[in-house]
Design a protein that fits this description.
The protein has 585 residues and is α+β, with helices and mostly antiparallel strands. Helix content is 28%, strand content 29%. The longest helix has 22 residues, at 171-192. The structure holds one RNA strand of 77 nucleotides.
RNA sequence: CGGGAUGUGGCUCAGUCUGGUAGAGCGCCGCGUUCGGGACGCGGAGACCGGAGGUUCAAAUCCUCUCAUCCCGACCA
C-alpha cells in the first residue's frame, strides 16, 4: 500500500461547511473530511482517504482472522434465487433482500449475507471428517435494502462486511470454533484502538445457546448495554437478566379484597398516578400482545419497561406484536388504557407476570372496564397466572446477575456478532460428511460478522471533537500529518520535503500538506481529517532547529529537535500510541 | 409503510406568502498584496431555480402530478 501522499496532488475535497443532509457526527465529518461522498440513499463512494481507512480496518481484521486459522475466499455478490429457496429464506427474508431477474427471467438477489452460498460451496467439496473443521471468510460488499438507511456509513444499504462461517463435525468442535472467533474479535478490536465490550446477545430467530455482540462504546450508539462494574458481565439490554431479590416480600399477602375505583379518562400510567396521587411502582401495567395470532397479557410494574424480546423468548414465539386497539377491546372488553389481569374476557388468553410482581400485593390495575381501575389486587389470590417470568428491562438499580455487583447502562454500536448456527443451514441444504465409522453426519455451523465500514463510522462516533476526527493510529488513513508552513520561504519547503522523505524512509505513513495554502487552512484541515500525529514545520521553528508536534487526541504539543529528529520522533510516537492503548508495530 | 421537512451555481443559504424573467457568502479561475488557527483588493467563469404538465401577457414564485434526499415513527396503554 502506498504509504504517503502529497495533499497538493490528492483528491481530498474537504468542506468548510456542513452538508445539509448529514445529521450524525461521523457522517458529517466523513463528508467534510473528504472521506466519502453519497451516491444515493444508503450508498457511498469511498474517496482516497476513506478507502485508506477502510482498508486499514480490513487489514487488521484479515490478519487476525488468518491468525485464528480462517481462510479468506471471495464469494459472489449476485446469488441465484433457488439457493435461497432451499433454506426457505427466499420466502422469509422479506424486502431487505433485493431481488431481480436476469435476461432469461431467472431469479437472483444481491447477497445480504452468505450462508447459502458458503454452505453450497462446502457441501460440494467436503466429504470426510478429515476435512473438518473448516472456517472460511470473506471481506466483501453486502447489500441490504434497509427500511430506513441512516446515519451515513453507520447503517447503509451497501456496506463492507467481514463474514466468516465455520463448519465442524460436532457441537464440541463448533464451540471451539466459536471460542476462537470470540478471541480473534477481541484481538481485532483491541488493535483497532477502540473502546469496546463483548456482550451477551439475544440469538434472535437463529436460535442456539449463546451469541455475543461486539459493541463499540459511544454515546450516540443505538444499542443499550448493561455492564457490571465488578465482574466481566456485559449484556445487551434485550438480553440482560434481571435478578429479583427474593427476600423482598414482607406484605404477608393480607391486603383487603380488591374493589373498583373510578378513573375517568386516565389511560396512561402518568395520568393515573397524578389522578390517584400514587407512585408508579404501586401499580401494574398490563400490555396486550398478539403472539403468533394468540392473545397474551404481559404485566410489569408501572415504572418498568417491558422487554418484548424476553416475552418472545419466554413463549418461544416467532412473532410478537402489540395488540391493536380493536384487539384490546375484544380481549378485555374495555378501551386501551384499562386492561388488567382480573377478569380478562378473552378465552384462553395467556397471562404472564414479571417476577417481581410476585412479592407484593395491594396493586392498582386496570379493571377491564372503561374509566375504571382496581385497587388492592393480589395476583396470587385474585388471578390465575400462566407464569411468572423475567419480562422487564434491567435498570441501574438492579444488580449484576452473575456477581451481584453494580450495573451501569451504556450506549454502544454493534460492530461485530458471533453466533452458533447449529444445523439450521447445513440440514436444510444437506451439508454432510462421513465420520470415522462411515456414518453420514450433518455439519455444525457457526457464523461471525464484522461491519468493516461501520467500524470506520463508529471509530469517529467514539473519537472526535468540535474540530474534527481523532483517528486511532491503527486505522487513521495516515499516521502523521506533516504541515509545511513554507509560504514563499524555499528553505522551509526544502526542509519539509526532506522530512517527508525521512519519515517515509522510516516506514511512517505521512500525509504531507504541501499545498500553497495559508497556515490556518492547513491547521483546520489537519484537525478535521484526524491524523493522530501532527508535525508542523514553519520558518521560526526551522531557524531554532525544532519542529512542532501535536497529539491530535490530547491536543498536547511538544517540540522535537531537528538535529535528533528520528530519535525524538520515535519516542513521541511511542507516547501517542500508548495513549491509544497501542504498542508500536 | 405512516408522519414531518427540503430540493435555487461545487457547498451553505436568501428570494416563493404578495407572479414581472435570479442573489449573497464560501469555493473556483486570473492578477496583485499577504502568510502560525479557514486573509484582502481588483477582475472573471459558473444556475434554463429537481422533473413533467397546467393557469397566466408573464411562473423559482400559483395549481396538479412526479422524482429525489433528510428527519421522526412504525412497542409501553
Amino acid at each position: 500500500m502506498e504509504n504517503r501522499m502529497r495533499l497538493s496532488k490528492a483528491y481530498v475535497p474537504t468542506l468548510k461547511e456542513v452538508p445539509a443532509e448529514a445529521e450524525v457526527v461521523s457522517h458529517r465529518l466523513l463528508l467534510r473530511g473528504g472521506f466519502v461522498r453519497q451516491l444515493t440513499r444508503g450508498i457511498y463512494t469511498y474517496l482516497p482517504l476513506g478507502l485508506k481507512t477502510l482498508n486499514k480496518v480490513a487489514d487488521i481484521v484479515r490478519q487476525e482472522m488468518n491468525r485464528a486459522g480462517a481462510q479468506e475466499i471471495l464469494m459472489p455478490m449476485v446469488q441465484p434465487g433457488d439457493l435461497w429457496a432451499e433454506t426457505g429464506r427466499w420466502e422469509f427474508y422479506g424486502k431487505e433482500l433485493l431481488r431481480f431477474k436476469d435476461r432469461a427471467d431467472r431469479d437472483y438477489c444481491l447477497g445480504p449475507t452468505h450462508e447459502e452460498v458458503v454452505t453450497d460451496l462446502v457441501r460440494g467439496e467436503v466429504r470426510s471428517y478429515r476435512q473438518l473443521p473448516l472456517n472460511l471468510y470473506q471481506i466483501q460488499t453486502k447489500f441490504r435494502d434497509e427500511i430506513r438507511p441512516r446515519f451515513g456509513l453507520m447503517r447503509g444499504r451497501e456496506f463492507v462486511m467481514k463474514d466468516a462461517y465455520s463448519f465442524d463435525r460436532d457441537e464440541a468442535g463448533a464451540d471451539a470454533s466459536y471460542r476462537a472467533m470470540y478471541d480473534a474479535y477481541c484481538a481485532i478490536f483491541r488493535r483497532l484502538g477502540l473502546e469496546f465490550r463483548p456482550v451477551e446477545a439475544d440469538t434472535g430467530s437463529i436460535g442456539g445457546n449463546f451469541s455475543h455482540e461486539f459493541m463499540v462504546l459511544a454515546d450516540t450508539g443505538e444499542d443499550t448495554i448493561a455492564t457490571c462494574q465488578a465482574c466481566e458481565y456485559a449484556a445487551n439490554l434485550e438480553k440482560a437478566e434481571v435478578v429479583v431479590p427474593v427476600d423482598k416480600c414482607d406484605c404477608g399477602h393480607d391486603c383487603p379484597a380488591f374493589s373498583e375505583i373510578p378513573t375517568p379518562a386516565k389511560h396512561t400510567v402518568d395520568e393515573l398516578c397524578d389522578f390517584l396521587g400514587i407512585e408508579a411502582d404501586t401499580l401494574i401495567k398490563t400490555l396486550l400482545f398478539d403472539v403468533d395470532g394468540a392473545p397474551v397479557a404481559a404485566m410489569v410494574r408501572g415504572d418498568r419497561e417491558l422487554n418484548e424480546i424476553k416475552l418472545k423468548n419466554h413463549l418461544h414465539a416467532t412473532d410478537v406484536k402489540l395488540a391493536s386497539p380493536e384487539q384490546v377491546v375484544a380481549w378485555t372488553g374495555a378501551p386501551v388504557g384499562f386492561a388488567g389481569p382480573v377478569g380478562l374476557k378473552a378465552a384462553n388468553i395467556k397471562i404472564i407476570a414479571d417476577r417481581e410482581l410476585d412479592f407484593e400485593c395491594g396493586w392498582f390495575t386496570g379493571a377491564n372496564k372503561a374509566d375504571t381501575h382496581l385497587k388492592n389486587v393480589d395476583l396470587r389470590r385474585d388471578v390465575k397466572l400462566d407464569a411468572y417470568a423475567d419480562l422487564r428491562n434491567i435498570t441501574e438499580a438492579d444488580r449484576c446477575p452473575r456477581c451481584g455487583g453494580e450495573v451501569k447502562l451504556r450506549k454502544g454500536i454493534e460492530v461485530g456478532h458471533v453466533f452458533k448456527l447449529g444445523l439450521k443451514y447445513s440440514q436444510a441444504m444437506n451439508a454432510s460428511f462421513l465420520d470415522e465409522n462411515g456414518k453420514e453426519q450433518i455439519m455444525v455451523m457457526g457464523c461471525y460478522g464484522i461491519g468493516v465500514s461501520r467500524i470506520v463510522a463508529s471509530a469517529i462516533e467514539q473519537n472526535h471533537d468540535a474540530d474534527g476526527i481523532k483517528f486511532p493510529p491503527s486505522i487513521a488513513p495516515y499516521e502523521v500529518a506533516l504541515l509545511s508552513l513554507a509560504g514563499k520561504d524555499p528553505e522551509v519547503a526544502e526542509a519539509a520535503d526532506k522530512l517527508y522523505a525521512e519519515l517515509t524512509g522510516m516506514g511512517v505513513e505521512v500525509l504531507y500538506d504541501d499545498r500553497d495554502e495559508r497556515p490556518g487552512s492547513k491547521f483546520k484541515d489537519a484537525d478535521l481529517m484526524g491524523m493522530p500525529m501532527q508535525l508542523v514545520l514553519g520558518g521560526k521553528g526551522l531557524k531554532n532547529g525544532i519542529i512542532e508536534a501535536k497529539d491530535r487526541r490530547t491536543g498536547e504539543k511538544r517540540e522535537l529537535k531537528l538535529a535528533d529528529f528520528a530519535g525524538e520522533f520515535a519516542s513521541w510516537r511511542r507516547t501517542v500510541r500508548q495513549g491509544w492503548g497501542l504498542g508500536v508495530e
